[in-house]
């Protein structure tokens, strides 16, 4: 049976109003690198599949199966590790998922046939799904509210950075190493990076917001005090020190110990509209990300007679555009607000799909691919920022895990559907129409939220996720020390 308790603390008000410190920079790098590694694993299969296809005599359908098994593993990992992050803490999970990733990424390097390769990829995907839940839940829980949207966007921009790295490494190994070992070296690179950044993540403390949800008030306040003390050493002026010494009115709230099925009932009961929004946004962006990856690797580039060794170059173009989309999100979620950035980005992505449909040359299709990558990166970053801010701390990781799982359904469906349509019709046109239809839930949900949802820019996570929402004043309710 669940029990509820009331506590009072000013820890979260202090955390929300801290100046930017080296600690926050460390958070950005440590969590952003996790997303880069996730992206590296997700994208490298498209770059090296041409080599695997030749080595193991695979069909296009088997290539789609590899992608589908990958995203199904992410689906399971997102839900399982999402709940565990709510139950046992953010830190334990974002360390455990990184170690799990490293273990099975090493195993992938030593795959002896296609079946063993699929198994190790599925096990690696469990960790990547867990990263999605643990990292997206953690990223905003430490960051001062005026920096939160931009910082979350920069962390999530690690995804196109990882994709660029994947394309660059794949291009080098495919063109300078024997085919039978080149793809193994590519997968091994991700393992090396994971082990390096595991050490960096060790110094990130447990989330004070999660600790307060467990009733561990003294631990949460000690972590906030430590961050504030480190900030005091960085800021020498009297004005800055006065800001750090400000005392905030204590906030009273109720905490409960999470239980899986209770969390699920809350997500699909009290918070069903927010859960539906997060799920629709994730389904749309995942269908586009994995759908366009499959189209480029298995349909468009082979249709245009591009050699397999040259394919990573085209992914580099698209991933550079994706990085530009991530940086655009980092600016516009603050400048325009969450709702406007969400709606415009998803609408832009659908428009880019229409553009590539109208193209019939390789340069035109590559330009369309770049526009899609720009738009969908801007879109999914805006979507994750909104989703992480409108779900309460006690169920944030579980809810994000559910939304990732819904998104992975789109990622499973898109590659199989699009390649099947291409096989049946013989041209990319039918597959692009299907991709457009799969993308539509995103702009529809974003439009509804833009009209009727709450704006969470520059408010605390507690205010943004409250059942009843009242906009916060510009200045916090504080007393001068």
TrEMBL record:
The UniProt transmembrane annotation reads 20-37, 57-81, 93-112, 118-142, 154-175, 181-200, 275-301, 313-333, 340-360, 366-386, 398-418, 430-451
UniProt keywords (A-Z) are: Membrane, Transmembrane, Transmembrane helix, Transport
Where do the record's region annotations for Disordered lie?
Answer: 462-481
**Ranges where the Major facilitator superfamily (MFS) profile domain occurs:** 27-457
Where's it mainly located?
Answer: membrane
InterPro entries under this entry? MFS_dom, MFS_sugar_transport-like, MFS_trans_sf, Sugar_transporter_CS
One Pfam family, short name please?
A: Sugar_tr
Looking at the record's lineage, which domain of life comes first?
Answer: Bacteria
User: Which membrane topology describes this protein?
Assistant: Multi-pass membrane protein
Q: Where in the cell is it found?
A: Membrane
Q: Which family does it belong to?
A: Belongs to the major facilitator superfamily. Sugar transporter (TC 2.A.1.1) family.
Q: What is this protein called?
A: MFS transporter
Q: Which organism is it from?
A: Paraburkholderia agricolaris
Q: What is the lineage of its organism?
A: Bacteria, Pseudomonadati, Pseudomonadota, Betaproteobacteria, Burkholderiales
